[in-house]
Amino acid sequence: MATAYRPLRRIGRSQRHRALLPLVAVFCATAVLLEIAVFTNFFGLANRGAGAPGPPGPNLNPYDQRILAVVGNITYFGTITGYYPELSHANLCGLACPELPVVWWSSADSLPPELGIHFYYNVTNSATVDVNLSTPTLQASGPDPTLFYLVTYCCYTTANPPYDEVVDSGIEEAPPGSTFGLQGYAFTTVPLPAMSAGGYTLYVNFTSN
């Protein structure tokens, strides 16, 4: 009986193996397909759980336009004039111009990238009385004078930290002989059109009384 029983066990095991072979083959094939799907991101899961990078922004300077000059102009109101000579038809960009503007990215995702330059200049009140200086406005050469925006920071002196506040209401009652440094930031958020001159001139306009 024992000799008859043992072959039956072998036959039964062999039959079960033959029955399992298709299942094993299907399982292996499924595993291979799943692995391929994972590596090829078939299910779109590769970016889950991690912030995907946003789409690249537009090229804000496709024609490599430069800032050729930053020209200061001032209009005086009152009986005295000429006491801010550094602002009268002067190049506020100094030796930096012509300058290729730089793309600046904000840490806030909701703000677009900006293409701009920083420039620094000093002004001295040469009058014998206290005088006011307005917040400057900006115009650009070319068909769109409002292409650039301007932010002005005040004031670099020996007594104050450099450029620690935005000038939004001008400088009031500057004492005679006082000198202070200003920082301008001119920028745009739209691509610069090509100019025949190869760049743009920016005009920074002040008033004083």
Write the element-wise H/E pattern from the N-terminal end onward.
Answer: HEEEEEEEEEEE
Gap between N and C termini: 124 Å
Mean pLDDT: 77
Quaternary status: single chain
How are the elements arranged and paired?
Blueprint (H helix, E strand, L loop, with lengths): L1 H38 L26 E11 L13 E2 L10 E3 L9 E11 L6 E3 L3 E4 L8 E8 L8 E2 L4 E4 L4 E10 L10 E10 L1
Parallel strand pairs: 1-11
Antiparallel strand pairs: 1-2, 3-4, 4-10, 5-9, 6-11, 7-8, 7-10
Description:
The chain has a 5-stranded antiparallel beta sheet, with no helix packed on it. The chain has a 4-stranded mixed beta sheet with strand order 2-1-11-6, with no helix packed on it. The protein has about 210 residues and is an alpha+beta fold. The protein has one helix spanning about 1-40; strands at about 65-75, 90, 100-105, 115-125, 130-135, 135-140, 150-155, 165, 170-175, 180-190, 200-209. Strand 7 (about 150-155) and strand 8 form a beta hairpin.
